[in-house]
Amino acid sequence: MISRREWLRLSLGSGAALALRPEWLDARVLAALQAQPLLTRAIPSSGERIPIVGLGSSATFSQVARSEDVSALKDVMRTLVEKGGTVFDTAPGYGASEEVAGRVARELGLTERIFWATKVNVARGGPADPAAARAQIETSFQRIGKRPMDLIQVHNLGDVPTQLAILKELKREGRVRYVGVTSTDERQYPELQAVMRNEPLDFIGVDYAIDNREVETTILPLARARKIGVLVYAPFGRTRLWRRVEGREVPAWAAEFDARSWAQFFLKFVASHPDVTAITPATSRAQNMADNLGAAVGRLPNAEQRRRMIALVDALPPAAEQRRG
Question: Rounded to two decimals, what is the model's pTM?
Answer without folding.
Answer: 0.89
